[in-house]
Amino acid sequence: xxxxxxxxxxxxxxxxxxxxxxxxxxxxxxxxxxxxxxxxxxxxxxxxxxxxxxxxxxxxxxxxxxxxxxxxxxxxxxxxxxxxxxxxxxxxxxxxxxxxxxxxxxxxxxxxx
Length: 113
What we know:
Elements: E1 3-7, E2 10-14, H1 17-27, E3 36-40, H2 44-56, E4 59-64, H3 67-81, E5 85-89, H4 92-100
Parallel strand pairs: 3-4, 4-5
Antiparallel strand pairs: 1-2
Helix pairs in contact: 1-2, 2-3
């Protein structure tokens, strides 16, 4: 939760991370609807973003240094949205190799990802 709304003295809490990330992607020409999406990280904001992306994407790949942190998230999202979430470990070497790939948002992901 990162936002609290006071409605007539009653506090309502919610997260804007997922909706904010989705809006930012769409506003910058990277609409994840029915696309293969890779999400780096498994912290609190990443969990909220993963939930929103799981609803939009055809496939979601969670990459994290400690895949045990995202394993439960992947399992929960697969249970809710179907088996389209993959959880993988990433190392600094993996990121370095990914940087060597000439990234362009309109370019499909390489098969190795």
